[in-house]
What does this fold into?
Amino acid sequence: MVYYTIRYIEDKLTFPKGVFGCTKPNLRLIDEKVDMILNKEYEDVDCSRQDKRRFCMDPAIKKDMSRSDKVRKEKAEVKKETYAFIAKYNDPGRTTIENLMEFRKHGKSISESTYKRWKREYKGGHMVF
It folds into this structure.
């Protein structure tokens, strides 16, 4: 609950370039949100929402990154996760289609082109540099 509150407030904050503190409108917004939270009853809080984001970056690192740099870094992480998943459930004795069905059985849909790319890049399951 507290995590979502902090994330919500952080998303609403805006810091003009060169300003190192909260602006007055932001301080007022924070006060309003905190008051709203303090006045809620426990039963009124919906905790069913889950954070669907897959990655969280350190603000100190991402402040100097452009949007394309952030997207590139996220896509690289997704590729690592996907390749690790394929390496875990891949069986060289099965056909491509059988392996793809096995991946789906384990909860992840991998395309045939991604699987073939993985096979080219990881000869026999080992990364080729």
Q: What stands out?
A: Strands lie at 122-123, 126-127. Helices lie at 2-12, 24-38, 59-62, 67-89, 96-105, 112-121.
